[in-house]
TrEMBL record:
Domain Plastocyanin-like: 15-127, 140-256, 334-436
Protein name (database record): Copper oxidase
CDD domains associated with the record: CuRO_1_CumA_like, CuRO_3_MCO_like_3
Molecular-function GO term, any one: oxidoreductase activity
UniProtKB keywords: Metal-binding, Oxidoreductase
Keyword Oxidoreductase in record: yes
InterPro entries assigned to the protein according to its UniProt record, in alphabetical order: Cu-oxidase-like_N, Cu-oxidase_2nd, Cu-oxidase_C, Cu-oxidase_fam, Cu_oxidase_Cu_BS, Cupredoxin
Length: 437
């Protein structure tokens, strides 16, 4: 496998043109000055080497979301590495076993650092079997809360965000711009790699003037491409689409973000050339990544998600908030998010698994909000009621009051987080970990 020289990935303050056109530039936190960070593109089997340099005024780390890597490279402060202090650096160096669409972001005060702009795509290209496309585009979707003057400062995370749906913004960008568009030839085949980098917003994405298929979810190829009309993308989820830009109605095609009865353009394609009826054949399935097949499963471990109220919750909340965030409002309200009654990162793992064991976890959402459950270091499958399993994912959207079962082969030794990727929820306690020995 080829080895890259260690380029530097610096987290630092910058300004960027993310707000609507007539607004001033926005003060952001960036990777190497860019928001989002420039996509890192490598090939399956290669090594990624980045010297992370922290030029922010608070500690940070980099987490490589969805990539099955060595535990020491996972970027979780206090669990897999120590935080990188302002002015310090840390070398991330690991092999990329899986092809697909992944991403990177901080894992310290992620609710703030990501709301200020820190995230980027990690694209691992297939060594063979990639669909032939005219264009291969990353569409990193983010959602910002901007004040009247187009700034982030102070404008995020009030009590309502912590205790309800998380921080939902008032401005959506794709690759850091409110008006992503490209010129394409009519009937061009395009690969779109969607990444939801928002703190908490769930996107409903629909096609207009595009004929498409979903070929991968959360980086992992589907066994068979699935027709794409509409798709839900919870925070941290990704979808690889292969679309043909047919645009039979006018000279434009869109990816639309649906919001109630209306919609807005997430991406616009200006289509060039005559309309013609010929259709391209459906794409082939992408080659599978080397993920272990599920084995026989023992009894499920059970996890309950709760919003903790009352005395116990308040006590734990007070401890946690004082230590982690100073969320005095939350303490006063006596409300925090909890796993099995633990509203803090526990000192001990929620459970241990032996390497190679197939683990089944029943997750009970006993709250009035949806959650986006994310497991580090492994991809899992949802076990459906009829015993069949869903596609490999690393983040699963659970509806309010929904219960799900997931199963995965615990084949990556180390301490791995399991948390809600709605960042106000995980910071508010919905974060635990398990140990694979
Ligand atoms: Cu996308 Cu624990 O992270
Ligand atoms: Cu992750
Ligand atoms: Cu949540």
């Amino acid at each position: 496998a080829q080895t890259e020289a260690a380029e530097t990935l610096t987290a630092r303050a910058a300004t960027a043109r993310i707000a609507p056109a007539d607004y001033p530039d926005t003060a952001v936190w960036s990777y190497n000055g860019a928001v989002p960070g420039a996509p890192i593109r490598l090939r399956q089997g290669e090594r990624l080497r980045r010297l992370f340099r922290n030029d922010l005024d608070q500690p940070g780390t980099v987490h490589w979301h969805g990539i099955r890597i060595d535990n020491a490279m996972d970027g979780v402060p206090g669990l897999t590495q120590s935080v990188v202090a302002p002015g310090d650096s840390y070398l991330y160096d690991f092999e990329l076993p899986d092809a697909g669409t992944y991403w990177f972001h901080p894992h310290n005060r992620a609710w703030e650092q990501m709301a200020r702009g820190l995230s980027g795509a990690l694209i691992v290209e297939e060594t063979n079997g990639a669909p032939e496309v005219a264009l291969d585009e990353v569409l990193l979707i983010d959602d910002w809360r901007l004040s009247e003057d187009g700034q982030i400062a102070g404008g995020f995370n009030d009590m309502h965000d912590w205790a309800h749906a998380g921080r939902i913004g008032n401005w959506v960008t794709v690759n850091g711009t409110g008006g992503w568009r490209r010129m394409v030839a009519r009937n061009a085949r395009v690969r779109l790699r969607l990444i939801n980098a928002a703190n908490a917003r769930i996107f409903n994405v629909a096609a207009q003037g595009l004929e498409g298929w979903i070929v991968a979810l959360d980086g992992m190829p589907l066994d068979a491409p699935r027709r794409f009309d509409q798709l839900t993308l919870a925070p941290a989820q990704r979808a690889d689409l292969v679309v043909d830009v047919t645009a039979t109605v006018d000279e434009k095609a869109y990816l639309v973000g649906l919001e109630g009865n209306s919609g807005y353009a997430l991406a616009t394609f200006d289509v060039d050339g005559e309309a013609h009826a010929e259709r391209l054949p459906a794409p082939n399935a992408l080659p599978a990544n080397p993920v272990s097949a599920l084995g026989a499963v023992n009894e499920a471990r059970r996890i309950e998600l709760r919003m903790e109220g009352g005395a116990m919750g308040s006590m734990r909340g007070a401890t946690m908030s004082g230590r982690m965030m100073g969320m005095s409002e939350l303490v006063n309200a006596g409300k925090v998010w909890a796993f099995n009654g633990m509203a803090d990162m526990p000192d001990n793992p929620l459970f241990e698994a032996r390497a190679g064991e197939t683990v089944k976890v029943a997750i009970v959402n006993d709250t009035a909000w949806p959650h986006a459950m994310h497991l580090h270091g492994h991809h899992f499958r949802q076990v459906l009621r009829d015993g069949t399993t869903g596609p490999l994912r690393d983040t699963l959207l659970m509806d309010r009051d929904e219960s799900v079962e997931i199963a995965f082969v615990a084949d990556n030794p180390g301490d791995w987080l399991l948390h809600c990727h709605m960042l106000e929820h995980s910071a508010g306690g919905m974060m635990t970990w398990l140990r694979v020995t």
